[in-house]
C-alpha cells in the first residue's frame, strides 16, 4: 500500500494536467470560491429569523391588580349593604308612614345600598324633624293666644274682665237659640277669636245695650208708710216737698 498525497493547489498552466485534450486550460478553481450568477434573495418572512426588519416588540400584558387583603373574616350571618327586603322601621308613637312615601323611601335606600340599621337612622331623623315641623305652628299659635289674654287683662283690669265676660255670655244665651249659641262658642274657640282683645271689646260695646239692667235698690221705707193709721193723708205740700221740712 503506497502513500497518496492530495493537493489542492492549482497545477501550472504548462502542466499537461491543466489542459484539455484540445489544449484549453481547465477551470480547476475551488467551488467555494466560484461566484454565483443568481440574484441575492432578500428575506421576506415575518418571524424573528426571516423578517427583513426587527419584529415589533410585543407589549407587556396588563398587570392584574393585586387582590385586596382581607381585613378580617366577617361573620357569615352579617348582611352588608341593602337586604333583599327591609323589615318594618320603628316609628314614634302616634306617627304613621304613608304607604306611598314608605315605598319611595325603601326604593331609595335600596339604590343607595343602605343596610337596615342605616335606613332606620334616616327614618329616625326624618320622623324627628317632621314632628318638630308639624308641632311648631301649634306652639306659636298657643303663645300668641297667651299674649292676647294678657292684653284683655290690661284693657279690662280687675273685676271688669269677669263682668264683661258674663255680660257677653248672657246676651248670647238670651238672643240666640241654644244650638246656635253653642256653635258660636265653638267657632270662637276654634279660630281663637274668643281670646282676641279687639273681638272681646267689640262684642262688649255691641251687646251692652241688649244686656239686662241692674236691679233697682230701695232707699228705705217712705214717710207715708210710717204714719199712724188714723192720720189723714199729707197735704200736697208735704207730699211734694216733705223732705224739705225740718
Textual characterization of the structure:
This protein is rod-shaped. The chain has helices at 99-111, 116-155, 160-175, 178-191, 197-207, 236-241. The protein is mainly α and 246 residues long. The model is unreliable at 43-51 (pLDDT under 50).
Quick overview:
The protein has 246 residues and is an all-alpha fold.
What structural keywords apply?
mainly alpha, 6 helices, rod-shaped
Order of helices and strands: HHHHHH
Arithmetic mean pLDDT: 76
Count of helical stretches: 6
What can be said about the biggest beta sheet? Answer: none
Query: Helix/strand/pairing class, anyone?
Result: mainly alpha
> What form results from the Cα inertia axes?
rod-shaped
| Strands, total number | 0
Annotate the secondary structure layout:
Layout lengths: L98 H13 L4 H40 L4 H16 L2 H14 L5 H11 L28 H6 L5
Helix pairs in contact: 2-5, 3-5
